[in-house]
Design brief:
Layout: H1 30-39, H2 49-61, E1 72-77, H3 83-94, E2 99-100, H4 110-113, E3 121-124, H5 134-145, E4 148-151, E5 159-162, E6 166-171, E7 186-191
Parallel strand pairs: 1-6, 1-7, 2-3, 3-6
Antiparallel strand pairs: 4-5
């Protein structure tokens, strides 16, 4: 980070994730640039630079292996607002092997939490379909902050997992949370547009 240069792979660095995308800062994609603009302002609104910058920062968050920011992301917007397309872009950027799809309800199951192992990102669609219980609330706090969580795979002993996967939720309406402090752990982002 200090020199802004990439270091070649080495046995000294133990990382369980890699992406198949080479670092090429000079590349520019007109379609991606337009999509970021479209997602960050509503119809008939001018481009919103502040929202665009925030979306780019949120996107960059998934590249950190550390939960040091202790934040998840809630993407809220109407149906056909671009949420699923944004999630597909994240999955394509990281590679399918680095992304899990545990839903909010899955967080109550030790078996389903095993999906988070060795992942960089968890994408949970339709987070507003079920209310977030106190139990789910506590589990999501642990997942977001990188605390150790108990996971189990069928036929294998339970073990503790130190989660590094960032938690991204999508919803049409913000899900009600029993603990208002939980909202501090999420960066809310609203997709204002509609794509017929």
């Amino acid at each position: 980070l200090e020199t802004c240069s990439l270091i070649p792979p080495s046995p000294e660095w133990i990382l369980t994730n890699s992406t198949a995308v080479p670092w090429r800062p000079e590349l520019y994609d007109k379609d991606m640039d337009q999509a970021l603009d479209d997602w960050t302002h509503g119809p008939n609104e001018p481009a919103d630079v502040k929202n665009r910058d925030l979306l780019e920062e949120i996107t960059g968050l998934v590249l950190f292996r550390s939960p040091m920011f202790k934040r998840g992301v809630i993407i809220q917007g109407m149906s056909n607002g671009g949420k699923s397309c944004y999630f597909k872009c994240l999955k394509n950027m990281l590679g399918e092997k680095n992304v899990s799809d545990a839903t909010v309800i899955d967080f109550a199951s030790r078996f389903k939490l095993a999906k988070l192992r060795n992942k960089m990102l968890n994408l949970a669609d339709d987070a507003d379909k079920k209310p977030i219980t106190a139990e789910l609330n506590e589990q999501m706090k642990k997942i977001i902050s990188g605390e150790s969580i108990l996971v189990e795979r069928k036929g294998i002993d339970a073990e503790n997992l130190q989660n590094v996967a960032k938690l991204f939720l999508s919803c049409n309406e913000f899900p009600p949370m029993p603990d208002p402090a939980m909202l501090k752990r999420f960066v809310p982002f609203k997709f204002k547009n509609f794509f017929p």
